[in-house]
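Intended use. Records such as the 2-aminoadipate aminotransferase entry shown here are meant for training and evaluating sequence-to-structure methods. They are not intended to support clinical decisions.
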Amino acid sequence: MQGMTTTEPLQVSSGPAPAWDDTFWTSRLSGRARSMTASAIREILKITQQPDVISFAGGLPAPELFPMDAVKAAFDSVMTHYGPAALQYSTTEGHPPLREWIARQSGIPARNVQIMTGSQQGLDLLGKVLISEGDVVLVESPTYLGALQSFQPYLPRYVQVPTDNEGIDVDALEAVLKATPAKLLYAVPNFQNPTGRTLSLERRQRLVELTRRHGVTVIEDDPYGKLRFTGSELPSLYQLALEQAGGDPDRVHVIYSSSFSKTLVPGLRDAWVQAATPVIQKLIQAKQGADLHTPTLNQMLVSELLEDTLPRQIEIVKKVYGERAQHMLSQIAEHFPKGADYTTPEGGMFLWVTLPEGLNTVTLLSEAVERKVAYVPGSPFFALGGGENTLRLSYSSAAPEQIERGIKALGETFQAALG
């Protein structure tokens, strides 16, 4: 009868279950997922978790310099002032006081600032909203491998632009732009990751003019810009482009990305992108699909630290990193083989070593770890391959005694490989 239910058992096939196909899941991944690769740095960091390994691999801020007391005081202040609102959902665009402070630093409206959960999210979402399959993306040679990892799922076609001790070779860039209809240029002008090099002022000005003339969008990644320990501060590409655009941020072809991870603390994961309104609007939509918004409490904590703690913290970090960089350079000069070339950074967290031809830093890494020291091989930083005899070293989180022991061990590793 209608409305009645039955209690008849569900019929299940009694035949043997099909054999499991080991390709079941891999065959069901999207083409985008199959193009993803693991971060070489993150994989190396797993090796270096052993407490007796001296690691020059990860670009980790020095934990002993974190402003612990200031963060504790900021937490109490935020909870007292905001109460439950500090623990509530918030707007996708970001905490208004934080966006307004960032905007004031560049003289732009807050509507042109989007808060991100770490600058890596900013790169990923910029790739999502700007890159279509087959688009030509220009990158430095070498470039930050985290950017390559972020952009790769969107299937760009990379074209490498040569670099030297002044950063991007702008003459080479001009030749590339004349021959290639590029859509994007990704660059790290200040204390570049991985080389530590800084783009000169003359080249910055030419780069901004060239890319504007050729209709190329520039993504300027600047997480280290405030960590200058020698020389004079240079204007960002974004500042130069804003001047060219008569101060109108919606006519600026440069997108600027930065972070509080290297100047305050990395664990709060607060970063931002500033860009023209159409880009910001799409980033808002993309972020809504990614994580809705950056944690409210974290943004409020950073806002509490901006006026007093941040400038003091920057000065502390610059001094320590400058001393550690100089110490590492002196040890390299003493212990590395003849023919090894290395950069002399003016700030940031990294330097770059080019060993004599024939040495392979990927294969030598295991030998270095046996000597209880680790680095990042250079080849993952090249979008189209190469750099087998290069490596990146980070001095930011290594104490002087660790630098001495670690660089000596690396020198022994490389000397032994040369025979």
